[in-house]
Amino acid sequence: MEDANTTLMLKRPINVKVIVTTRWKDEMQQQLQAQITQIDGQMQQLEMQGQRAISEIQKQSISPPGPEVSQQIDNIQIQVNQKKSEFLERKNQFLQQMQQVQLLELDQEVVQAQMESFFRLEQGDNLVKKLNVEIVLRDGVVEEIRGDI
């Protein structure tokens, strides 16, 4: 029977690595392209919403528009431009990731994610070895579990 004073249940990070294959590269490119397409759609929607809001303000205001109306329109345009800038930054990050994926060599190992797992630590265990665990995948299938599980 385990002695509660000599055993601990701890949580550790586990790196998930993938072995680069043609299939993995294709899947990553498709995922990144889908995210880029989604961002493009969000930017178009944002632009349309901004234009609608400006049109509504212009319809409701007297002609010629007063300084408050001009200020409202400017504020909307500033908000739209700030949000567009955020979208463009994310899009550029995805484009850079696509470029990086293209440059990866086949059979190269790449860290793709990090997970957590629980492990039992007992008196006399080597904590460093227990913490250094990683999973290696090839096309989604576990090829190897490295470390002291």
Strand-pairing-aware structural class: alpha+beta
* Main beta-sheet strand count, sense and barrel state: 4 strands, mixed
End-to-end C-alpha gap:
21 Å
Number of strands: 4
- Backbone shape: elongated
Q: In what order do the strands lie side by side in the largest sheet?
A: 2-1-3-4
Percentage of residues in helical conformation: 40-55%
Mean pLDDT: 92
**Poorly predicted sequence stretches spanning 5 or more consecutive residues:** none
The helix/strand series, from N terminus to C terminus, equals EHHEHEE
**Helix count, per DSSP?**
3
What Rg is obtained from the alpha carbons, in whole angstroms? 26 Å
Question: Approximately how much beta-strand content do the residues carry?
Answer: 25-35%
Task: List the SSEs and their pairings.
Layout: E1 7-19, H1 22-60, H2 67-103, E2 109-122, H3 127-131, E3 134-138, E4 141-146
Parallel strand pairs: 1-3
Antiparallel strand pairs: 1-2, 3-4
